Amino acid sequence: MTKKQDAIYAAPLNEIIDFQFDERVAAVFPDMIQRSVPGYGMMISTIGILAGRYAQADSRCYDLGCSLGAVSLAMRQRISQPGCEIIAIDNSAAMIERGRDLLARDTTSTIPVTMVCADLQEISIENASVVVLNFTLQFIPLTERLTLIKRIYRGLKPGGILILSEKIAFEKQARQQFHVELHHDFKRANGYSDLEVSQKRTALEKVLIPETLDCHQQRLQAAGFVFTDIWFQCFNFVSLVAIK
Ligand code: GEK
Question: 135 alpha carbon to ligand 1 midpoint, in Å?
């Protein structure tokens, strides 16, 4: 499938409205995320490998904030335990509609994937062996994040895994600047102009709220997870695992 190129912020805008996961974004999403998140492709395929190891027979694997379902498709390819089902949730109707089309064309596995258009804060999480928040928690209001992580912890079976990927912030100004500048270089190297980088940054300012690694690790511990570790980092993009 050829990817439609993201040019949403290419022309100067009089007013930059807060970023939304609407039809325009859904249409260019694979190109947008690939050119914006360092290591995205590798992270998707590695989440498949993690799911392949941690999925338990007759359990559920959740892809929360699934967008077009890249994580679900990667998990589906790698899970071999019998009786597993994948539940993919996103509250963007445009994402779910396109995601369902892509899922219908995927013939790599027979593991059932149910894609649901819903607020992930309102769905029940139960009998889970794998839960993935791949760049989703950063869009949930700060005050609601601990409640969500606790709910995930409760819904996981013993030995189950949470995979949490986030854009992070740094306390020390010099570190923050180093990683943000390198991330912007990464975007420019992938063909985004200075204008695109800056307009997108403004659009995301109030919508995507990054926290420090320490903050994420403390929240995971507060929710009950004893084992947590970082399995990926490139600049200000990190992925953690937490095992119950
Ligand atoms: C990937 N995981 O390709 N309920 C449900 N979905 C939500 C909510 C919510 N409350 N808030 C945000 N979303 C994907 C990438 S993108 C990350 C995830 C990014 C959804 C939102 O609609 C969007 O599709 C997704 O979370 C975040 O691996 O674009 O930076």
Answer: 7
21 lines ligand 1 (CB under 6 A): yes
Distance CA 76, CA 29 (A): 20
Q: Give 77 Cα–ligand 1 centroid separation in angstroms.
A: 21
Question: pLDDT digit of tens for each residue in the chain (244 aa)?
Answer: 568 998 888 878 878 788 788 899 898 999 999 999 999 999 999 999 999 999 999 999 999 999 999 999 999 999 999 999 999 999 999 999 999 999 999 998 999 999 999 999 999 999 999 999 999 999 999 999 999 999 999 999 999 999 999 999 999 999 999 999 999 999 999 998 888 778 788 878 888 999 999 999 999 999 999 999 999 999 999 999 999 9
Q: 135 in ligand 1 pocket by Cβ < 6 Å?
A: yes
Residue 134, ligand 1, Cβ within 6 A? yes
Whether the CB of 109 sits within 6 Å of ligand 1: no
| 139 CA from centroid of ligand 1 (Å) | 7
Q: Give CA torsion, residues 19, 21, 27, 30, to 10 deg.
A: 90
Q: Is the CB of 138 under 6 A from ligand 1?
A: no
Distance CA 59, CA 129 (A): 6
Sketch the domain layout of the chain as residue ranges. Answer: 40-169+208-243
- Contact at 8 Å (CB) between 54 and 159? yes
The helix or strand, by DSSP H or E, that contains position 120, with its residue range, turns out to be none
Q: pTM of this prediction?
A: 0.96
Is CATH 1.10.150.450 the right assignment for the domain spanning 40-169+208-243? Answer: no
